[in-house]
Design brief:
Layout (H helix, E strand, L loop, with lengths): L1 E6 L9 E5 L8 E11 L1 H8 L8 E2 L3 E9 L11 E5 L11 E5 L3 E3 L6 H19 L9 E4 L5 H12 L3 E6 L2 H9 L4 E4 L5 H8 L5 E6 L6 H5 L2 E9 L13 H5 L4 E3 L10 H16 L7 E5 L4 H9 L6 E5 L1
Parallel strand pairs: 9-10, 9-12, 10-11, 12-13, 13-14, 15-16
Antiparallel strand pairs: 1-2, 1-4, 3-5, 3-7, 3-16, 5-6, 6-8
Helix pairs in contact: 2-3, 2-8
């Protein structure tokens, strides 16, 4: 019998239920897929706690890798036995499962150079990193970025990608251990925000100028210091709200702080076009497959341990990527 983690109400990690499910046969445009590894992402907590509203009951998780078991009518993009991975949003919800039905259009064929575990750990984080590095700003060698959560899954990939582009990377972390992880992956400068003022240190490190771009996945707690770290006409990229959503503010603030730019992108809008998704995935797979970017899988969980996995994630006990191994 197939297994899945499901939600019947929103709340803390304790609302996650591990139970038997009946998968059934794929319908038109669908495939039945057997998972080998499933990604654990901070966005999953937003579905669980109601930040991202979904109909209930429902599955949870948006990223996994595995093997196509059967295809429905009209499916030509993949075939039985293909190695595939996926990530998305509502169209891929239900990844915390051993088997599932999923639209074939959501799947990305996985090259032999990428293992299932690596794919589950990096499809969402890697595609996020890809659009941040290749679509958000016209980076040139010598530009500088401030990267919050530099020791996290996206942070480690962005750091390595940024160094390939010749950028200076200033990362923020919460502990000395995470600082070392960030340095080991290429961060030029690391700020421990538990005892250092981020904006002041950024100004010191950039001779008072500030950075070209800030990638802020923390949100409420770091918003103002992120703005204060930017150079004139710099770009603030809000990519997450781990500490809570950013309170409303007067756009005049951006003018007062140097004619700053602000964007709140979402991965779904950068992979909605199949050609763009294929291009970003291809570049990502090439960089990982040839060893230019290394994926750190630092936490492995059983699917039945989803409650503990969410507790660890929200307590910021994790580094790099985390996966469920089926």
């Amino acid at each position: 019998m197939a297994k899945a983690v499901r939600l019947y109400e929103t709340g803390g990690p304790q609302v996650l239920r591990y139970e038997d499910i009946d998968v059934g046969a794929p319908g038109p445009g669908e495939v039945r897929m057997r998972h080998v590894a499933v990604g654990l992402n901070y966005a999953d907590t937003y579905f669980r706690n109601g930040t991202y509203p979904i109909p209930l009951p429902n599955g949870i998780g948006v990223e996994a890798a595995g093997i196509v078991q059967a295809v429905g009518a009209g499916v030509t993009s993949v075939a039985e036995g293909d190695r595939v991975t996926y990530t998305g949003f509502l169209n891929t919800l239900g990844a915390y499962s051993t088997e599932r039905l999923i639209p074939a259009a959501a799947l990305i064929k996985l090259p032999e150079t990428i293992s299932f575990e690596t794919a589950a750990a990096m499809t969402m984080r890697g595609l996020t990193s890809a659009y941040l590095m290749r679509r958000i700003y016209p980076f040139t060698a010598g530009d500088s970025i401030l990267l919050h959560a530099a020791a996290g899954g996206v942070g480690l990939i962005v750091t390595q990608w940024a160094k390939l582009l010749g950028l200076t990377v200033i990362g923020t972390v919460s502990t000395d251990a995470k600082a070392q992880i960030a340095r080991d992956h290429g961060c030029d400068h690391v700020i421990n925000y538990s005892h250092e003022d981020v904006a002041s240190r950024v100004r010191e490190l950039t001779a008072g100028v500030g950075v070209n771009v800030v990638f802020d996945s923390v949100g409420k707690d770091t918003f103002m210091s992120s703005l204060d770290s930017l150079k004139r006409r710099g770009l603030m990229v809000c990519v997450g709200t781990a500490s809570g959503t950013i309170p409303p503010f007067d756009p005049q603030l951006l003018a007062m702080k140097g004619s700053l730019n602000l964007t709140r992108p979402a991965l779904a809008d950068f992979i909605a076009d199949p050609a763009e998704k294929a291009a970003l995935a291809g570049e990502l797979f090439d960089l990982v497959g040839n060893g230019h970017i290394k994926i750190e899988i630092n936490q492995h969980y059983a699917l039945s341990d989803a409650v503990q996995a969410h507790r660890d994630l929200e307590a910021r006990k994790t580094t790099g990527s985390s996966i469920f191994v089926i």
